[in-house]
Design a protein that fits this description.
Layout: E1 3-9, E2 15-22, H1 28-35, H2 55-64
Antiparallel strand pairs: 1-2
Helix pairs in contact: 1-2
Length: 82
Amino acid sequence: MPLVLFVGVNHHGQTIVFACALIPREIEENYTWVFQFIDCMNGVHPGAILTDQCQSIEKGMKNVLSSTVNPYCLGTFSTSCL
């Protein structure tokens, strides 16, 4: 099962985990549901999200976070989206 982590930096410069989710399959609908977590954060969208080059992540992100930049990571840990 893919693990999705929302990680950020607090006002003390410390790395913190805001939320995490285990999703049953890497499909667009699941990622759309996961990215709706951002709506719980007073509508403040992240400036960037680092992901692998999975099409379903990109499509799910565009459904909810259209203004967020998605630079890809160099390393890919998931092979199910290739």
